[in-house]
Amino acid sequence: MRLPWELLILQSFMLCLADDNTLHGPVFIQEPSSVIFALDSEENKVKLNCEVKGNPKPTIRWKLNGAIVDTGMDYRYSVVEGSLLINNPNKTQDAGTYQCIATNSFGTIVSREAKLQFAYLENFKTRTRSTVSVRQGQGMVLLCGPPPHSGELIYAWIFNEYPTFVHQDNRRFVSQETGNLYIAKVEKSDVGNYTCVVTNTVTNQRVLGPPTPLILRNDGVMGEYEPKIEVQFPEMVPSAKGTTVRLECFALGNPVPAISWRRADGKQIPKKARRHKSSSILEIPNFQQEDAGQYECTAENVRGKNVARGQLTFYAPPSWIQKISDAHVAIEESIYWECKANGRPKPSYSWLKDGELLIPQERIQIEHGTLNITNVNLSDTGMYQCVAENRHGAIYVSAELSVIAVGPDFSKSFLKRLTLVKVGGDATIECKPKASPRPTFTWRKGKEILKENERVTLLEDGTLKITNITKADAGSYTCTAVNHFGAASSTGNLVVKDPTRFIVAPNSMDVTAGESILLPCQVSHDHPLDIMFTWSFNGRLIDFEKEGDHFERVGGQDSAGDLMIRSIQLNHAGKYVCTVQTSVDKLSAAADLIVRGPPGPPEAVTIDEITDTTAQISWRPGADNRSPITTYVIQARTPFSVGWQAVNTVPDIIDGNTFTATVVGLNPWVEYEFRVVAASLIGIGEPSKPSEKRRTEEALPEVTPANVSGGGGTKSELVITWETVPEELQNGGGFGYVVAFRPVGTISWMQTVVASPDASRYVFRNESLPPFSPYEVKVGVYNNKGEGSFSPSTIVYSADEEPTRAPTMVFARSLSASEVEVFWSLLPESQSKGRIQGYEVRYWKHGDKEEQAGRMKTTTNQTFAKITNLKGNALYHLAIKAYNTAGMGPSSAVVNVTTKKPPPSQPPGNIIWNSSDSKIILNWDQVKAQNNESEVKGYKVLYRWNRQSSTYVIETNKTSVELSLPFDEDYIIEIKPFSDGGDGNSSEQIRIPKITNAYARGSGSSTSNACTLSAISTIMISLTARSSL
Question: Basic and acidic residues bias located where (predicted)?
């Protein structure tokens, strides 16, 4: 039986658990940070921030130097929303280390430490300073001696009067460590008064020291001397991680020393480092562990050098790498926490409970950053903090420990209501109530208590396991849990089902690529159970949506999950597994699929040896894709071939066990690449990758130029032409042509070499060449290997001479407004040195330039020409020249001709037609020519059947015509005038439809007016003039 005070504690604790989503211990949102307060600040108050959350709301207290700040005793202190506000701060009373303390019913936590410091700057104590007397060329140091202060200072020096400040360079330097002014070598210009200016960076307050006069001694100039380092960094310089490290180095000397920096440990100075004030300052931003080491400053002039060294050491305050978190532990269990922090030097650890140092006891073990509490009880509940600290700082992390003590409760973890299992299977029923401490468990089936046997196992955590299930195991099962604080039960049912079995399992198959197959998967199962089929391929689940091009699940009932594979590819070969799953069991069946296909591409195609016409090729076989390779075919490609071409080989047929062959019939001096294609009984495979490119060896040329001919040219020339030999048939480099020729009937050949392989023409010039004389001509070839054969000889004539006589008896006449005809006499060949091949007629309009003349040529014996497309009523000039292959002869005398006036532009109008008996009568208005047009001489009537293209023309000098036509067709008729200037414009087309009545009328204003006329079977045309012109 529990004591009353124990039950009270338990009840209170249970109330907290009931709302554990909102109730919790204090947690810092913002911890205080160190503050430097300027004493002369107008605000006259300091605020140390502290923000905490928790439920219940925490109360806030503050510590100063370990003692509680009593806000009730000192009106200057007040806590506002957790933060500490200090009015009228006093550096004597208020400077120190502060901590924020937060407490609620769950416990207490303390914040990190925050320092409050006061910044100030007092005035210089002395009002005058002694005069400094130095020799010119001597080095000098003016001391600043800053007054009492707190906070970082910045130093500067005024020269003579404000605002003239000392300019720092390689000769003058102001140290920000000491405030002193250093002049490496004094010059006359340095004489004057110097005043040290000190500025506090926190308060921005600035004070000026008393002026120091500098004068030159008159006992001579200081001679040269070696450098003396006056400003140097300490032997040990501790540097914090991430800060900017600043090293100073300056020397006196004559001449002025040069400053340089290096690392004494041989490493390179970091690239991020910067040098200032003529290298007197080395600055390293974002200082890291790798930047630590010994640094060396060297001051050097012609008299010697001096060296200063110092060690930069790396330190870092602690930073967390592993924190602790809230824990809920059952009573009598154990809690283990571990916190880890980085830092240099390595941090030490301590633990706090509710703000007080935790001391190791029998149950409480503390080692480094670990805390282990065994057999926890309610008194261990509270707020815990791990503190990591080194000499550069301390950090805190907090967590809440809740100790749970509660009787068994199944409200959130009932037994599984229904557990399904197959006959022969195993059943596991978990019993996991919420309880602290851990309860003991008993099980019942129905009303009978279960006892362990060879099939029934009761685990310590309450789980029930039954193996080799039978139908008799079905029923209700109850788990009862009991501990010191109570007991509870939960019941579930075990249902036993028949197992699933394969009826038709997938079977292994051997198929050819491109086929489609069905892998069956059919089962018998307990039908009330849902069933699911899945297929995997080589251990990977098939996604039927993404892979639907080849895979499809088929089966018209819930007991079938067959797999259809369409258009099988080689990569579909492998193991296929059908998996069938119900809520009680899962089983699988596998089948191996062998896919045979055309061979893969052969590999490593190599040209082992190459001659002028052969190549020895070898290769390695590619994948046979489960079908033995029967033959190989070699293909070749050149820059001149259209794609890949099969080539002749030895052996002629390459069987599947042969991996080398000789390619024959190649062209010499051609760059070849080869590939190999394998074939099997299933088909032809993909070709191999091409071999390297190799050129066959050179050989004598065998192909001679084709179509050797020539002729033409100018006087005293013999022109010989031929078709070039293609590059792939030249058989070698240095290819060219040998041109041979001789007069017909002679014995000796004249030869010349044309060295260009692209040449297709040779011109032989000689003043003694008779015109148009026959020559026997042939063209041969050669290359680097020697000369080849000549082409068959052919006859080519030498160039002709231009005609020397002009055509005579030239006259012209006008045919119409756009045509003229010109005539001339034939020139006898005996009267001209050059042959006459024809005549060229040149014509141009009066007023145009002769150079713009139109030209037309005639054949040899033609002595007239018709010129068309001329302007009407225009004067034209004409001249004629004879020509041959050598060129044009002299021009004839120019003749003139005027074209006729243009024909009438107005078409016939007001066309009317009518039918009477078997006739069609057309009437139209007379066309009158304009002043610049030819007079009308008559009219042309053009007609055709609507379905034929042939047009018939009738001429008349009247304005009417009578037609006798078969009336069983539609007719298209148009009328136009004609004159000496040619035909005028036509009227609109008139359509006369089939005639069905004895009488019909119509007009030419529209071709769509249709009258139906009766058909007449005879064709007769008669014309009768109705009126004279």
Answer: 689-698
